[in-house]
Amino acid sequence: MKIKCCQRKEFDKKLFDLNEFLKAVSDENRLRILCILKSGPRCVCDIWENLELSQNLVSHHLKALKDFGLLKSERSGSNIIYSINDNNIDKYLKSLNIFLKKYDN
Amino acid sequence: MKIKCCQRKEFDKKLFDLNEFLKAVSDENRLRILCILKSGPRCVCDIWENLELSQNLVSHHLKALKDFGLLKSERSGSNIIYSINDNNIDKYLKSLNIFLKKYDN
DNA sequence: TTAATATATCAATGAAAATTGATATAACTA
DNA sequence: TAGTTATATCAATTTTCATTGATATATTAA
């Protein structure tokens, strides 16, 4: 018995993207980083000092989140200020909601 | 500078649970399984034949999703029929939405 | 009660990704 | 310019977890 939802061509791409988003955020440290940045833009040092993580580790997670478009950054003097990219987060949240909610296909 | 969101005691548990949910679903095969089951309850064989995955691999993913409460199962003759546990999925979706949306704390 | 089918479990392997340590770069400050 | 601070990068290690192969269990059918 062939089931509909897995037959569509465009489904693969959609599902791949959704999974990339889930992989990007399914990590406690990244969730904490997102939580901190929800309170407003912060420099890297504010983040790693609050989370009690090493500087390079936080830098690595920030890069991953930024590369995926969930964060933005800008230089301010010697600091790099990171902030949430709300538009993209909303986009992926919406996509996930549609995907997991009942009877959307 | 101490940032509010990471100081709360109950936050740890909430964030841990949320992350467990994200880890449970951040896998292409599991997303495909969820998609198939959204179309209705299915036995294990329907799933692995559709996804062209090995039987034991599908069984393993089904177990993970069920252990986490995202799926239910019941025996029907020699088959085990899996289905979505909508309540739990909605619960976690809601939690994730609140967590990631702007200014919820 | 034997064979066949459906599903689950378990140990071993492999791959992806987090973490660490060391170092590089860039911007301030004295 | 030299020293200091903030951040990024890179290679090595470790951890986590999906996948595989083999086998066990449970149900049905002959």
Q: Specify the structural class of chain A.
A: alpha+beta
Helical content of chain A, roughly?
55-70%
Unreliable segments of 5+ consecutive residues of chain A: none
Portion in strands of chain A: 5-15%
Question: Rounded to an integer, what's the Rg of chain A over CA atoms?
Answer: 17 Å
Number of strands of chain A: 3
Question: What series of H and E elements makes up the topology of chain A?
Answer: HHEHHEEH
Widest sheet, order of strands of chain A: 1-3-2
Separation, N- and C-terminal Cα atoms of chain A: 18 Å
- Please work out how many helical segments of chain A DSSP would assign: 5
Main interface by residue count:
A-B, 43 and 43 residues
Average pLDDT level of chain A: 93
Largest sheet of chain A: 3 strands, antiparallel
Query: Which oligomerization state do the chains in this entry correspond to?
Result: homodimer
Please tell me what the overall shape of chain A is: elongated
